[in-house]
Structure formats: structure tokens, C-alpha cells
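This section describes the prediction task in plain terms. A model, or a person checking by hand, is given the sequence of a single protein chain and must write out its three-dimensional structure as a string of C-alpha cells. No templates, partner chains or ligands are provided. The sample shown here is typical of the held-out split.
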Amino acid sequence: MALFAFPIEYFVWHYGEGLRDFFRVFGNFLWAVYNFFSIPLLLRTFFMPWRRLQEEKKQQGFHAEEFFGNIIVNIIMRLVGMLVRLVTLIIGAAIIIIIFCASIVSLVVWLTLPLVVAVLFVFGLTLIINS
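The expected answer:
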């Protein structure tokens, strides 16, 4: 009798607890990548200089060459920071999209796997019977 109860228990687990665990695992993957790439922090600090490198005033009073030199260096550091953060954001977003697409494909496989096993079992039995 336990042989007949096993498939029913398996289907209950597969489409119940197994499906909940499936969504929990892929949610954890998305959360991990989102936090690994620090997406909120990168967005908050998008316009900040790279590694907080910037020129500061060294001489008293106004000196045009120092003033414009500092502006140019600070603009370059901000552009470098923006470029590095943008590349990191693009890579993080691409990996999140890949994980999301992989989760959809995996979900379809997970939902159809018991049917595939049953079809292959019946196909194997017909091969044995017909030979």
C-alpha cells in the first residue's frame, strides 16, 4: 500500500513545499546579487568622485590656475566614478536579468518534470512489452 501512497505524497510535496522552496531559493539568488553589487549604494553615490579622490585648495586667496586645475581634476574624478559605477550597475542588472530568465526556465522544468518522468516511464514500459 505504501507503494501507491508514494506518488501521491511526492506530488503533494513537489507542487506544495517544493514549489515554495523553489521560489525561496531564486528569491535568495536575486537578493544576493542585488546586495553583492550594492545597487542602492551605487545609485546613491553615482555622481561622487572615484574613491573620493578630489583636489582641494592649497593656497590662500584666489589663484586662477589652481582653481581651474582643481575643477578639471574634480570633474575627471567624478566622470571616472560615474563610469565605473555605471559599468558595475550594468553588469549587476545583466546578472539579475539572467537569473530571472533562468528562474523562469527552471520553473517550467520544475512544473513539467513529474509529467516527463511519467511519460518516459510509460514509454519504457511500452518498449519492454513490444520487444
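For orientation: Residues 10-130 form one domain.
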